[in-house]
Amino acid sequence: MAIKVTMPRLSDTMTEGTVATWLKKVGDKVSEGDILAEIETDKATMEFESFNEGTLLHIGIQAGETAPVDSLLAIIGKEGEDISALLAGGDAPAAEAPKADAPAAEAKTETAAPAKAAAELPKGVIVVTMPRLSDTMTEGTVATWLKKVGDTVAEGDILAEIETDKATMEFESFNAGTLLYIGIQEGNTAPVDSLLAIIGPAGTDISGVADNFTAGGTATASAPVAEEKAAPAAEKAPEAAAETSNGGRILASPLAKKIASDKGIQLSQVKGSGENGRIVKSDIENFTPSAQAQTASAPAAKQEASAPAAPKVFVPAGEVYTEEIKNSQMRKIIAKRLAESLFTAPHYNLVIEVSMDEAMQARAAINSVPDTKVSFNDMVIKACALALKKHPKINSQWKEDAIIINHHVNIGVAVAVEDGLVVPVLKFTDAMSLSQIGGSVRDLAGRAKNKKLGPQEMEGSTFTVSNLGMFGITEFNSIINQPNSAILSVGAIVEKPVVKNGQIVVGNTMMLSLACDHRTIDGATGAQFLQTLKQYIESPVTMLA
Fold it and tell me: Kindly report the CA angle at 353 between 351 and 356, in degrees rounded to 5?
C-alpha cells in the first residue's frame, strides 16, 4: 500500500521547508534509512531519511520549491501501484501548489501574531517544543533531562532523552543560551508541539512566557526565532565547507559531527556505514583508535570505581511495603501491542525437540577460527532464515482482505532492556553468514541496552526469534510480534539421557516452540517449517550448502 511522505519538521521552530536537492528520483527503489532529499529549514540544510521502503512513485515538492510542514512531499509504494486516489486527496493540492500557498500561510501567521507577539517574548528567548522524533509519534515522554535550569546550552548539546512509541532517543538543542525553563518534567508525557523548554540569555525575565504559549502562541515563538537564528545558520556554512576530502563533501549526520567534534575525531578518518558512506552516530561511537581507546578507558574506569553503591531499601519486618513505578512510554506501548496481538490473533503453539550434539561440535570448530564468535542463537537465526525461504507462508502477515507473503527475510531478535523488550531487525537475514549474523546481533543488542537504537532499526521484521535459554528456561511460549505471523521461542540446551540407535546415551537437546497466527498458518504448515528447521540445526553443514 502506497504511503504519503509529508514535509518533516526538522527543527523545533520549523514551519516550512525548501527542498534543496532530491537524492532519489521517481522510479528509484527506496530502503528504510535511505536519504530521500536535502531540505533547507529555518536553521540549516539537513538530510531527510526515509522511514519506509518501496519505490518512489511521486514527488510533490520539486527541488527549489518551498512548502509548509506536513505538505505532501512524496509517495512511496509498490512499483506500478495506482496512486491517483492519494493525489486527489486533501494533502495533494497543498503540495502541488506550494508557491501559491506558502505566502498565504506566511501572511496568516503574521496577522495572527502581530507586533504584540514579538513584545511578549523577550529578545533572544526561544521556545522549544516537544519534537516529532518518528513518523508515527504523536506524544513523547521525557525520560531524562541532561540539562537543568540555569545550565548553559550550546547548539548540538543533548537536552533530554525522550521516549517515543518506538525507542528512547536523544534530543539535541538547535539553539544556544541558558536553559531558563523546563515545561515537561521527567516521567511526564505530552503531545508533540507541547512546550518542552525555554532557552535564552542568562537572567532574562520569562514570567508569563509559558502561559502565553499555552494560550495559543506557537506563532509567538516563531517570529523571533527566525531572526535570532539567521546569523548562526550562516556561520555554519564555513564549517560544512571545511568538511571536505579531495574536494568532495563528507556526508555525516549533525549528531555525528557534534560527537566527533567533542571527541576530537576527524570525520575524514571515519568510515561511514550509512547510505553513500554517510557517517552516523554509531560510526563515531565505534571509532576507537588504539591510542584514543587507552586514554578513554582510564577516566571511565576511575569514574566507575568512584560511583557510590545504590542505597538498599529498608523494609521493617511485619510491615506492609509497596512501591509504585510509573509506566514508561515503552512499557505502555509494549502492553498495548501485546494485548492487541493476543486478543486479535488466534495463537497456537507447536513444540519440537532438537538434538544439539552436531551443532555444539560445529560451533566449537567455527569459533576456533581467529576473530570469529558464533553463538547457538546465531545458528538458530540462520536456520530460521533458510527455513523461511522454503516455507514462505510462515513469513507472512494478515490483512483483512489478503494474506501478504514476504519473500524477503527480515528476522527480529527480541532483546530484554531495562524498561521492557525491544526487537531490533536483521535485514535480509538469509543472505548473511553466521559471523555476520553474530556481529550484527551483538551490535544491535548492545545499542538496544544503551538506548542507542534508531526507530528504523526496529521496523520491517517478517519473523521473530526470542531466546531465554541463557536464563536456564527450557521451554516457553511467546506472544506473536505483529504484523508477523509467527515467533520462535528458544529454550536452553539440556544434557540428558537420549535414545540413539536403540541405545540410551548422554545427549544434548533443545526445545523449540513456534507460536503461529491461525489466520495465516495452518498447523501442518507450521509443523513442516519446524521439521525443516530441525534438519538445519541438527546438521549445521546443510546451512552452508
Answer: 145
Which residues, including other chains, have CB under 8 Å from residue 35's CB and lie 6 or more apart? 23, 47, 48, 49, 50, 251, 274, 275, 276, 278
Kindly state whether residue 313 falls inside one of the protein's structural domains: no
139 domain residue, yes or no: yes
Question: Please, are residues 504 and 497 in contact by the beta-carbon 8 Å criterion?
Answer: yes
Task: Clarify whether residues 376 and 345 are in a common domain.
Answer: yes
Is 214 found in the same domain as 143? yes
- How many domains does one find in the chain? 4
From 111, 144, 164, give the residue that closes a domain: 111
- Look up the CATH number of the domain holding residue 72: 2.40.50.100
Q: Is the pTM of this model over 0.70?
A: no
Q: Which residues, in sequence order, are CB contacts of 467 under 8 Å at separation 6+?
A: 377, 380, 414, 489, 490
The three-state secondary structure class of 413 is strand
Structure confidence at residue 11 (pLDDT): 61
Which regions of the chain are under pLDDT 70?
A: 10-13, 42-44, 89-120, 134-136, 165-167, 213-249, 254-255, 258, 274-276, 289-316, 329, 545
Question: Do the beta carbons of residue 72 and residue 60 sit within 8 Å?
Answer: yes
Check whether the bond before 483 is cis (ω within 30° of 0): yes
Q: How high is the pLDDT of residue 254?
A: 60
207 part of a folded domain: yes
Catalytic residues: 518, 522
Same domain, 487 and 342: yes
Q: What is the pLDDT of residue 309?
A: 56
Full residue range of the structural domain in which residue 454 is found: 330-544
Same domain, yes or no, for 195 and 271?
no
CA distances from 163 to 134, 277, 447, 479 (A): 11, 29, 15, 23
Rounded to 5 degrees, what are φ and ψ at 109? -65, -40
CA dist list (Å): 420 to 151, 327, 330, 514? 32, 10, 7, 22
**pLDDT at res. 169:** 78
Q: Spell out the residues 6+ positions from residue 124 whose beta carbon is closer than 8 angstroms to its own.
A: 177, 200, 201, 204, 224, 228
What pLDDT, on the 0 to 100 scale, is given for residue 220? 37
Q: What single string gives the DSSP state of each residue in 487-529?
A: EEEEEEEEEEEEEETTEEEEEEEEEEEEEEETTT--HHHHHHH
CB-based contact 285:450 (threshold 8 Å): no
Q: Quote the pLDDT of residue 403.
A: 95
